[in-house]
């Protein structure tokens, strides 16, 4: 994007918006107890994707700051105001009616910043949650993978292990948040065996401790030789931009080994940086530098201004460099991508963005369906990091844009449907990166021409509930690296 021009445009737009919202003769100030609320309203009024659909965010909603203060005082809890200003949020509407499923607010932006780069308070167990039985409120967990260098990596717990309780208490849809994601850093998982559709405690208990943990999203990077095929297999679990150099190095390794095919495993990838997604797509292809990978669609105020003044700034292009560093591209014209019910956001962006250019074979389950992106807004004059209000650490992560691919398609709210649908079964997960692991085995079969889909061991498929990445507050994200105004230092 043309960053400098975009900054100037948005700064002008912000100034114009604020001036139009309040009478110039109104000299009322914002009381100390309404500073956070005032920040929430102003940020959403300017940036929120559905600003025009929320009457209380209308530009002419308040004639004076005094009127706004009167309105804001009705929401002493900032989180309640934020929720009330969203367009049919999932927390207040049934799934069939909800529009905004992914905007959220935090009271400590330091925690948020870490989460968006893969730094969390974590014991290292990444897991899925499923209903114990149809119609039941009880849930069970199953280990998807263990993060290296974590507390769990030193314990006797592994992919495929099943747990039913925490500290002896059965997990339910009403207590899982408190038990698994509460303030207590120490807890014990109670493990179970699964026989058909029944779970039986096996008496095994694993004590775990959460610590500050940085997750390298590149979990597996290897080459599988099968006949005349050299199949690159990359399991990538988060679009964390501070690992872009390692991602580029991983592709350099695959390129140096002369891979003929590529399997990209995004089944546990909930998303992340739009910039990183663009770079990953460029590493996969290498033939489309300068062509449109994705286009952003903002709310009507910002969209109309950009379209009139700098439409190119709304486009994200395939690239051959990360700054001054050349991108290692493996020049694929066909790619196999593994997905699950936890594949979201920037992962879906890569799939959708590649489809106009190369053949994408999707194997696994239907994805989440998040075709909208967010940005972190701070309480500062420009909503960026500079000159943040020192009186609090609130920040917002509202949805600010919808994203479409190079031919304008972006309507996949119900998820991207696999070419070959194959859900994971708890009782047959297999070892990640092993050629017998069911999803990878299917990809290899399709690549080599044997064509057979791996058959799961007979067992019950349990209804998916949530996973650890979407349930612990990180959400399924696709985000801009920074609010445009936050880049003033680059001018």
How would you characterize the overall build of this protein?
With 491 residues, the protein is an alpha+beta fold. Helices cover 24% and strands 26% of the residues. It has 12 helices and 26 strands. Strands 3, 4, 5, 6, 7, 8 and 25 form a 7-stranded antiparallel beta sheet that branches. A 6-stranded mixed beta sheet has the order 10-11-12-18-19-24, with helices on both faces. Helix 1 (3-21) packs across helix 9, helix 7 (244-256) runs parallel beside helix 8 and helix 8 (274-284) runs parallel beside helix 10 (346-354). The longest helix has 19 residues, at 3-21. It is globular, with a radius of gyration of 23 Å. Residues 1-5 and 484-491 have low confidence and may be disordered.
What is the global morphology?
globular
Helix content: 10-25%
Write down the overall mean pLDDT: 89
Whole-angstrom Rg: 23 Å
Features of the shown structure:
491 residues, alpha+beta, seven-stranded antiparallel β-sheet, six-stranded mixed β-sheet, 12 helices, disordered N terminus, disordered C terminus
Short overview:
Helix content is 24%, strand content 26%. It is an alpha+beta fold and 491 residues long.
Give the topology, please.
Blueprint: H1 3-21, H2 35-47, H3 65-72, H4 78-84, E1 104-106, H5 109-115, E2 119-122, E3 125-131, E4 139-146, E5 162-166, E6 169-170, H6 176-181, E7 186-195, E8 198-209, E9 211-214, E10 218-226, E11 229-236, H7 244-256, E12 261-265, E13 272-273, H8 274-284, E14 292-297, H9 300-309, E15 315-317, E16 321-322, E17 325-326, E18 334-339, H10 346-354, E19 359-364, E20 372-374, E21 377-378, E22 395-397, E23 399-405, E24 420-421, H11 438-448, E25 464-467, H12 468-471, E26 478-479
Parallel strand pairs: 11-12, 12-18, 13-26, 18-19, 19-24
Antiparallel strand pairs: 1-22, 2-9, 3-4, 3-25, 4-5, 5-6, 5-7, 7-8, 10-11, 14-15, 14-23, 16-17, 20-23, 21-22
Helix pairs in contact: 1-9, 7-8, 8-10
